[in-house]
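Course assignment 3, question 2. Fill in each field.
Student: A.L.
Task: Predict the tertiary structure for the chain below.
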Amino acid sequence: YDEPAWFMLNIQAGQLVAAIYAIAEALPDDLPMSTITRGTRRVKNAFTHQALIHAYGDIDKITNKAPRFHVKPFVQSQILRISRIATDKRYRRQGYASQLAAQLKNRAAAQGFDYISTSFSASASTTAFWLAQNFSPARIGLYPNKYNHEYALLMLYSLYPDGQAKQQLFSAYCARQLRYFYHDYNATFFHTLLAATCQLIPPPCEKQQLCIAIENTTHYHLDIHWVLPLLADFVAEYGQQQPQLQSQLATLLTHKKRPRRQQQTDKAILAAVAQHLSRHH
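Answer field:
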């Protein structure tokens, strides 16, 4: 499952002090984009692509009107995902893990990778380490892990200047999630992550993008909590023109997680919103 993989060591004076394990990721050329956005299929060794596209939609289609994104399509990108990085406790806080991360960046760039990613339970110390390596938040989980009650955080680093616009785009989407569900996150950690996203604002939400997201929730497997921040942005942009839309969504856009028992009712509201948009917007 984890092939092809990279394994790098940092050895000092004959002692193993740190190690890093990474996995090469790429999407199959013939994979329909809808299977990712709908959540109907998962492929091996493409975790980063699928996590970001499923949460935020077909990034390349969403950004096709913005010249700064007219670079290599994200679906074609080669990503090296850091699965584990560890330092012997006797040698911690001496820069050995940072040395490994820097070496991995150089090696990955030389091998033609576009991005490096990593994901982990988002403790303050681990997040601070990756921020210091110039990785940026790209996606934060919707629910805390059961074993430590922390949220999974996916971070991204572009190896080339051309990819930095999309790295910032994912940070903007992550910031939108953080701002919308601010009740769910530790206050100090919340502000640290928001600062790391540089308070980026995502591109304006278009009707087609929103309708596709709603369809993927009402008919397929997209969690409604990926859609609500997008919907809130849309209402903020166009709500005054559509007062009926605001009234329909009053029970949904509360900045809090929706109870599972309300799932069918919530999907019915979203379906009604989609119909309203198709008729009036």
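Instructor remarks: The chain has two domains: 5-196, 207-280. The CA atoms of residues 245 and 273 lie 7 Å apart.
Grade: pending
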